[in-house]
Amino acid sequence: MDNTTRIAVVGAGLGGLACARGLQLHGKPVTVFERELSRDVRWQGGTLDLHADTGQAAMRAAGLYDRFHALARPEGQEQRALDPITAEIVRHDQPTETDDYAPEIDRGQLRDVFLDSLTEGTVQWGRAVTGVTSLGDGTSSLAFADGTTLDFDLVIGADGAWSRIRPAVSDAVPAYSGITFVETYLDDVDSRHPILARLVGNGTMMTLSRAKGLSAQRNSGGHIRVYAHLDVPLDWHVDTVDLDDDAAVRDYLLGVFDGWHEDLLGLLRENDGEFVNRPLYDLPIGHSWAHAPGITLLGDAAHLMPPFGVGANLAMLDGTDLADALATHTNVDDAVRAYESVMLPRSAAAAQACADLMESMNDEAPVDVDAIRRHLNDRILNPQA
Q: Which Pfam families match (predicted)?
């Protein structure tokens, strides 16, 4: 592939930015189109655990491992499983001083690492894409919300769960998983919420019962994200609670978790942020498509799956793998075929492992998060196993 090849990445998330960074490391031109108006227009999400064999491997391939490591929080690997009635710790995984298998980093910080590494002007902000059309000669036409179009030799759909690029290669649409998270947060926890800070610890706290659960995850800067896990229909709130009324949502959740320990209920009662309804969706296990010249997908656009810490790791690995394929093959089509031949079975194995784990969490046994991580990564790295 020569340096005149026109490549578009749709979506300035972690996977798309990892791909753009990889291409620029190889001296290849690329443009990233992002519908958001700027890098700071919204909060980018909570904390991520970057796994040694996937996310960290992608950071090394992107030449950004040292920048990641400077921001990472190895202590964030701490995992606590609590009894919902007594709030006693029933499982406690504490990282050693040298444990860096899956250190945590805020998603926004990680995104900034990628953005700061790109040539100025690589990301075109406020450029919403509405779709892509194959032109029949191996190239594609990208359509924008402002009515304009641009032609490219390759369009990479890195635009997440509700991708505008996916329909060009697949009829699949995300389906509701049956699980909804209701999210909120606590700020300045060590000074303002010391009891809750001690409850959560340095990493992730989780407590589960049938059909419901609570988890909390420490981010940087004394910030904790809180998630109520509900096994409910997609329209659970209709005729039940007004999602725009924070007090009503709080009261509803306190009723759902009535009888749980008061310290755990404090995660909901003392929230500093609004409550946000987040239904979880996924794509069919083994989602794939017939190879389409000039178009491909990565990250959640290709393989949306349950939230077991796999998505961001896989997206970045997809991005660096695709960039490497494009840099080492003589033509775009061969590069994309080579990338898809690795990415599709890898993501299918990970999606099946996530589904199996989601099913296993229906019991009330303490969650061994470290075992989950290693099981998922083993399936990712050995998809035929």
A: FAD_binding_3
